[in-house]
Amino acid sequence: MADLLTFGFVGSNSGILVFVLLIVVLFVSMILFSELIPEKKRQGLGKLGKKLHDFFNFKYLVTEKILQFLYIFATLVILIYGIVMLFNVEPWTGKWRGYIGLLIMIGGTVVARLAFEMSMLLILAVKNIIQINNKLKNWNVQEQQAEKYDSTASKSDSIVYAVEKTAAVKEEGNENNLEN
Predict the structure, then answer these.
(1) Cβ contact 118:67 at 8 Å
(2) Span 65-82, pLDDT tens digits
């Protein structure tokens, strides 16, 4: 039982310290969950709070940027290794084996591109689904605003008003995105 509480740390109080830290992390997680996750609390948050809200609600995807970085890194490693292999000479026979370097540079970059494209397909599909979802939400908002506009006005006047109102809200949102 003592090994479970110490988590491999040496010392008599380390298990207690880890347990207390776990309780603190649990408490902070509950506070962040209740204060940052709800959509209705987003308006009252500051700039950092809104960024954290968007991060914890997966409004933007970090994985896409990580994969783009890894693709660039992998491609550079493959190209550098291929260039090194261009000047490779077999030590016993003295034969040039640069063709292996050419194969690595061409084939390796193509394989890396295909592998990263396959992984990006899922991410791009999720982004498209999010965009469709946002457009559907905006359409529902337009319909609700059109109904509230004026019961005496014609349906087309109400929709025009709702579209203008939504465009104004969207422009305001785009300005906020540009600031980020």
Answers:
(1) no
(2) 999 999 999 999 999 999
